[in-house]
Amino acid sequence: MQGCHFFCGGHLDGHHVTETEECIRQAIEADQRNGMMFHLAKDYVVFADILCCKEDTPSAKENLHQAIRIFEDIGADGWVEKYESRLAAM
User: Fold this and answer.
1) Which of 72, 46, 43, 88 has its CA nearest to residue 80?
2) Of 11, 20, 37, 46, which shows the fewest CB atoms inside 10 Å?
């Protein structure tokens, strides 16, 4: 899971992952509500990283795909390329 060590690198324990997961879920909700699409895409990237820490690679990939779709929709091509590369490494 080479693409999964970007965020946690093994430094977060279960409690901190759960805490961080709740924070990012709230951020996703807020950014969806407020139409902050770039931030929403970045939220999905962070959520994918958290899921990697939990060794839930299928869900991490799903969230990374969601981020890529949003980046495509807003024309953020550089970000699309960056995260497509990470997805390929997972």
Assistant:
1) 72
2) 11
**Nearest CA among 47, 36, 46 for reference residue 70:** 36
Task: List Cβ neighbours of 24 (8 Å cut-off, separation of 6 or more).
Answer: 43, 46, 47, 50
pTM for this structure? 0.85
pLDDT band at 1 (very low <50, low <70, confident <90, very high): very low
Q: Are 80 and 42 in contact (CB under 8 A)?
A: no
Q: What is the DSSP string of 22-46?
A: HHHHHHHHHHHHHT-HHHHHHHHHH
Amino acid at site 71: F
